[in-house]
Amino acid sequence: MNQEPRTQNREPGTGNRKPAEILSSIADLELVARIVVEGLVSGLHRSPFHGYSAEFSQYRHYRTGDDLKYVDWKLAARTGRVYTKQFRETTNMAAAIVVDASGSMDFGDGLTKFRYASIVTAALAHLIAGQGDAVGLLARDVFLPARTGGQHLRRLHAALSSLKPAGTWHPADAIRRAADRMNRRGLLVVLSDFYEDDEAAFAELRRARRSGHEVVVFQIVSRAEIEFPYARDLEVADLETGRTIAVNGALARRGYRDAIAAFLERCRARAGADAVEYSLVVTDTPPERTLRTFLLSRGR
Amino acid sequence: MIWLNAAAWMAAAAAAAPVVVHWLVHRRAARLLFPTLRFLLPTRLAAVRRRALDDLPLLAIRVSILILAAAAFAGPLLVSGRRRGEWNARLVRETASPSGTRSLAESVDAAVVRLEAAPPARRELVIAAPLVLGSVTAADLAAVPPDVGIRFERTGELPAERTLTERPLATASGPRSIAPTLTGAQTSAAERAGGAPVSLPLDVHASPQAKAVVNAAIAAVLSGRVWTPGTGRRLRLVVADGGRVVTPGDAERIRVPWMADAVAAIARDRDVRDASARIAAGVDRPPPWRVVARAGDGRAAAMAAARGDALAIVSAAPPADLFTPVLVRAAVEAIAPASDWPRAEILPIPDAQLRAWERTPAPIAAPRVDRIDRDDRRWLWAAVLVLLALEQYLRRSRVRDAEETEVARVA
Fold it and tell me: In this predicted model, what pLDDT tens digit does every residue of B326-357 receive, in sequence order?
């Protein structure tokens, strides 16, 4: 059921290339987002995102000049008095997407983790903007407040495209900043590998959740990071700090696998404890499948 | 400082091994850019290799271990004043005495060999023997190393008599053997006929007419009894024929001692000089010919040169001249001189001579490295053991620290 047709999203002349590789090779992120979303929405029956439309507040006695469409006629028939319905506010949903653009995301075979996160971010933004909700972006020094409209969406795609993963990242600061900038309850989406300061990052996610935001986490890793398929002597250099250590791949593999499995499980458990919607994403999974799985889970 | 096995310093090249190992490992290890190191514990082997360059104190200790081990194999010997004093306080003494099968000179040689094998100490050779004249000579003592002291002790009695082995005599009636016996101041010789036939090693080059005259001269010489020469001595006599003197073309300058002695002996012979002076005219020949006897005109009446392994003598006198038998006799006696029996008489070596030969053992200046019984390498091995323990401690502490750091980081 989950297996995508192998020819889906395949362009003429692409041979045996995987859909993810094809998406990776398309420079236009907006086009990639369209491709992903168009292959996605056909399977969805209703919108997965719930906006905040007119929210009922209270009744008050009818006054002259009140709009008659807000009169509750059923209540008037039952009680003999005329009441007018009052609403607190009428808004659309606001979403903030936080993308990790640190050096550790610049890793992957063909499709880097950052490119993968960019594709998912672009597709999510396309989906959210498509249903008239506001979407914003925070990635390193790029901050776009949540807004609606096609022009804003194109600006978001352009900002994503201009980013190059490098350096370190402080996830707690970024999450706090994004959550604080949403002046009403909204959707906070974080895409990262959470290798840096994960304790503080999840503390901030918990804080955002308690502030009333809906929090979604995509923890993105590559297959090589999970399996460590190296066997020979290696000088392993940290993509962020440049620090190197010498290891023998075969000797280090078992300990590495145990350590990263424990780390991922710890992240999942923390997210579950804080009611954060958590998805572990491996970059060899096509982005549209990742999104489909995510959206279907929200639709249930 | 003396190194007993300096070649072992070649092993010091192994000090470069840790650096080379690191270099090879470093070259072999592929560089991998990876998102994080937090889940990677450095493997022990790779970490140890890596630390060979990162951890300079550890590298220094390892290099020191290798250098000290090489130095220990090289066998250091610190020649201090105290050690030199210990060596000089010891005296190794070897006694040389004649035995039944070994002469005194041979015993001296054997004692010198034993002294050479002795550990560092002052050395002395004691020659204990009757010290008969000729039993030990200055040439025998010259073979003794100069730092070895020499002392003489007269022991035993002088031998009663001495029998010499002498060359046979060549006579007109055949060979005769001579056995001289020296007893005290008396010398007797037993002579008897027979024995292996001997012939004079004399080749004559002359015309047939002249040769007959020369052979008669040889017979006259043999009738006077002459000693046969030792092996390897030959004489080649060329006699002038009709006033024409032919000198062999392949003559060479005389370089063999017995030839030079023989030429000198002929030249000193008074009969030869008298006979040659009566010859009216001689000849001139360039070197390598040397004048042995001069004629009345001052030119050469007889000349000598080497010709292969033989001494060639050319006579310019007429064959029938008296000079010919005189020259033959002098030449035969010159290549086979009579033995000096008085020098073989049984007499003690004079005390003055012995005192002149005696000397005290010299103190040790530089000991022979192959005779050192105990060097200072044990201290270096002790240092190696200490450094090995230190290296082990440092290595384990580094690995432990690294593991604790990584575990803490992963946790």
Answer: 998 899 888 887 777 776 777 888 899 999 99
Interface probe for A, chosen from B21, B40, B406 (most Cβ of A below 10 Å), is: B40
Range of the domain at B128: 83-158+348-369
Residue B252 shares a structural domain with residue B324: yes
Q: How far are the Cα atoms of A100, A158, A196 from residue A192, in angstroms, in the given order? A: 5, 20, 9
Q: Is the pLDDT reported for residue B314 higher than 70? A: yes
Given an 8 Å threshold on Cβ–Cβ distance, is A195 in contact with B41?
A: no
- Tell me which residue in B31, B35, B37 faces A107 most closely, judged by beta carbons: B35
B22: nearest CA partner in chain A: A246
Same domain, B261 and B361: no
Q: pLDDT value at position A25? A: 54
User: Does any domain span residue B185?
Assistant: no
CATH of A4-48+92-299, one of 3.40.50.300, 2.60.40.420, 3.40.50.410, 2.30.38.10: 3.40.50.410
At B252-309, the pLDDT tens digits run: 999 988 999 999 999 999 999 999 999 888 888 888 999 999 999 999 999 999 998 8
- Decide if pLDDT at A200 tops 90: yes
Torsion of CA B235, B236, B237, B238, to 10 degrees: -160
Determine, yes or no, domain membership for B226.
Answer: yes
Mean pLDDT for all residues in chain B: 83
Ordered by start, the domain boundaries in chain A are 4-48+92-299, 54-89
Do B332 and B223 lie in one domain? The reply is yes
If asked whether residues B305 and B248 sit together in one domain, one would say yes
Q: Which residues pair with A235 in a beta bridge?
A: A246, B31
In which region does residue A252 sit, left (phi positive, over 0), alpha (psi from -120 to 50) or beta (all else)?
Answer: alpha
B153 falls within a domain: yes
- The end-to-end CA distance of chain B, in Å, is 57
Whether residue B10 is contained in a domain is answered as yes
Under a CB-based contact definition with an 8 Å cutoff, are residues A139 and A127 in contact? no
* Beta-strand runs (E) in A88-167: 94-99, 134-139, 142-147
**How many CB atoms lie under 10 A from the CB of residue A5?**
8
Token pair of B52, please? Answer: 């060979």
Structure tokens at B62: 């390892």
Q: B23, B28, B31, B36: which to substitute to probe chain A, counting the most A Cβ within 10 Å?
A: B36
Total structural domains in chain B? 3
For residue B53, the model assigns a pLDDT of 57
Nearest CA in chain B to A242: B33
The chain B residue lying nearest A264, using CA atoms, is B39
Residues B272 and B314 in one domain: yes
The answer on B296 and B257 residing in a single domain is yes
Which chain B residues are Cβ-neighbours of A234 within 8 angstroms?
A: 29-32
- Rounded to whole angstroms, the Cα distance separating A157 from A126 reads 9
- Beta strand pairing status for B290-294 and B300-307? antiparallel
ipTM: 0.75
User: In this predicted structure, what is the pLDDT of residue A288?
Assistant: 84
* Cβ-nearest to A234 among B32, B35, B41: B32
